[in-house]
Amino acid sequence: MKKSGPFYDGIFRRLEAKRWRLAEVPFGDVDVASVPAEVVDFVRSNCLVELSSLYAVRMFLRDFRENVDFCQFMSVWYFEEMKHYLVLREWLKLFGREPSEEELAPLDAELLPAPWPGTLAMHYCGELRLGMWYHRWSEVMPEPVLRSIYRRIGEDELRHAQCYRDFMLRAAERDPAVVLDLVQAAKWMMVGGLEKHPTTLAASGPGEPSVVERVPEGGLLLARVRETIGAADEARLRGKILSTLSTLCDAELATLPDVVRWTRRRGGADEPPLDRAADLRRIAS
Ligand SMILES: [Fe+2]
Ligand SMILES: [Fe+2]
């Protein structure tokens, strides 16, 4: 990634060059009768969770309003995320199980304002984790077209993670004071298990349901995560995050305790946060 100038210009071209088209997905090859009902139920909940980019993009444009470059990148990110919703929806149409328009509005969540550095790091980790889930599901799903869909959207999520990483490194380059907030949020995302993703955290404040909890049968998504993702996958994910944090801090952070020591030396708090906005505020205070 070029160091100077807006990232949007390069990201647009980079993602455009890799972009897949909906028309490439061979929906006509799906053998509808052979797909177990529980797989259709699961894809339906996954489809509705992908709709959450709608709530997230409103939050990003509000909380990152000072960062024009990032807000421009959001146009590409939002397009691709909504395409994930659409491609899963198109697959569900084969079964007559696509979500109805009336179902969507009640799922809406207003994400509370939070300091942007923590949000950036949280979404970097979230995209990596989601990419890992989708790649696994591209291997284990029983229906070949669905496997190809998960491969495509998994690759998109990992490319998104790369973009978030670029914005984190640039933020650190421009203002080293934000590094502690970035590292604290990434540390928090590495602690406490398989399911930690922006869509599984309290969406609108302490005690409020997460995006996944708002979705009908959202539990199916988390059950599939627990069933298909193991400790070795999480260790690989952690390795990727630690590598980025090492670059960010210009220090060798090979383990989570290394990160804890690094943040302690800089006066960061240790307690595990509980909800998105309140905890990102605490990380930044
Ligand atoms: Fe997505
Ligand atoms: Fe993504």
Molecules bound to protein? fe (ii) ion
**Biggest sheet layout:** none
Computed structural class: mainly alpha
Oligomer: single chain
Description:
The protein has about 280 residues and is mainly alpha-helical. It is built from 13 helices and no strands. The two termini are about 30 Å apart. The mean pLDDT is about 90.
Please describe the topology of this protein.
Blueprint: H1 7-18, H2 37-50, H3 53-63, H4 68-93, H5 101-104, H6 116-140, H7 144-174, H8 179-190, H9 211-214, H10 219-228, H11 231-249, H12 256-265, H13 276-284
Helix pairs in contact: 1-4, 2-4, 2-10, 3-4, 4-7, 6-7, 6-8, 6-11, 6-13, 8-11, 8-12
Bound molecules: fe (ii) ion (FE2) (2 copies).
One fe (ii) ion binds near residues 81, 127, 156, 157 and 160.
Name the descriptors.
binds fe (ii) ion; 285 residues; mainly alpha; 13 helices
